Amino acid sequence: MDAVSKSFSRLTNLKKLKIKSVNTNVSYSIALTLIILVPFFFFQTGLVYEITDDSSPSSFSLSYYKMQDSSLLIHESDVFSAQWLSTYGDITQFATYADTIAETHVLNSYSTINQGLIILLSNSTQLLRADGVIPAVPNNPNNSYIYLSQFNIQNNVIWWYKRMGISYKLTELPILNETNAIISRIYSNGDSEVYFRTS
Predict the structure, then answer these.
(1) Final residue of a domain: which of 11, 32, 62?
(2) Are residues 49 and 94 located together in one domain of the fold?
(3) Domain co-membership, 101 together with 189
(4) How many domains would you assign to the chain?
(5) Which residue of 3, 10, 192, 193 has the fewest CB atoms within a 10 Å radius of its CB?
């Protein structure tokens, strides 16, 4: 009887040991999972970027106030001006000058302007595009439209090549400051504007 009780007590001690080791393994697994998932969640939701005051907003819900000044945000005023230019401008005959952001975001999505007739605004008088596309020579090169988005107007700057960080102030653009050309503002909704240039 004594041998039975000893073997029984050994068996119960082994069970307790197994239960403790299983609980320890489960605890370690849960802790490791939380160590990985919690930071992942904070980074994915943009909370870390918001707390560290990152200049590039990553969460619309957390960084809405920052995104109002972002060049990548398409404002309603930009959409209206792009649609107005498509409706009332002679976009098949004249080229349209715009910066890279307006060309790839607003004009590409909300206008019917032929992408070959969009020329990038730059500090040069050459017909240039940062994306390597050679613009079509317009039928009437002496006349053109100039599209300025809300970001361009409010910040007095255009993006020529956003990825490389190349931008110019509006005062540096020869097309806007030519003395031998007549530049008229033909549309404004208070935020974005369209100009007509003739020389």
Answers:
(1) 62
(2) no
(3) yes
(4) 2
(5) 3
The secondary structure of 117-155 as a DSSP string is: GEEE--SSSS---TTSPPPPPPS-TTEEEEEE-HHHHHH
Q: Which domain holds residue 83?
A: 76-198
Dist. CA 41–CA 27, nearest whole Å: 21
Is 181 found in the same domain as 87? yes
Give tens-digit pLDDT for 88-138: 988 888 888 888 888 888 888 888 888 878 888 877 666 555 555 555 566
Residue 147 neighbours by CB distance under 10 Å = 27
**Residue 71 in domain:** no
How many Cα neighbours within 13 Å face the side chain of 70? 18
Radius of gyration of the chain (CA): 31
More confident residue, 61 or 159: 159
- pTM for the model: 0.64
Q: Are residues 17 and 105 in the same domain?
A: no
Tokens of 94: 């004249």
Task: Tell me: do 47 and 94 sit in the same domain.
Answer: no
**pLDDT (tens digit, 9 = 90+) per residue, 42-56?**
877 777 777 777 666
158 CB-contact burial (10 Å; exposed 0-12 / middle 13-18 / buried 19+) = buried
